[in-house]
Amino acid sequence: MRIGLLMFISTITASGVCAATTIMPMLADGNVAREPHFSPSVVPVQASQTDIPSAVDAGRVQPEFVPFPTEAQFETGDTWISGGRRYRLYGLQACLRGTNVTVSAGVVRDCGELDLVMAQALIRDTRPVCATIKNLDQNNAVVACQTTTGRHRYDLATYMIAQGWGFAAVDSAGRLIVPGYRAAEESARSARAGLWAYSDLPHPVSVLQQQAGAQQ
User: Which residues make beta-bridge pairs with 86?
Assistant: First the structure.
């Protein structure tokens, strides 16, 4: 089920503004929390290298956003590899591989794989640009990305969550990584958008928390 256009635009605008208050300062100081993570095998994805935003806005130097790499290979709906490094989209939690959803009577799909396919399509269609929040080590980095639609830019994670193809990630203490993403998730849930259309959706945050509790 698709979320109404006006509601969708309102949601990603409001949630994106809230998210920006969390993310943009991090682009300047590199202060980023670690998130629960799940990394399965690699699936290739392509994206266009166009629509690079200006580095200067209203006289202020902005973080360097670069086009999503054409050679990127997705591991999950929130993580990809490019140039031998792994990049994680900050604050977004994808559905987990190995968990299932019933898409129709008698038809079961792997939630993580379904989410990954849709992430590829969204990346291809929205042509995002990304900036590094922090290099965790020489092989791993956390990034924030933005989509470009006409003269407007939207936070990519907000866009994916509002479409129902991502979830608001939490840290090891159960706190939201980016509080602004909760509004987008609640809107998608109410509209039964994307993965929320499936009544047996295995919410990845709940699954990860259950796994963490079982290991204690």
Answer: 81, 140
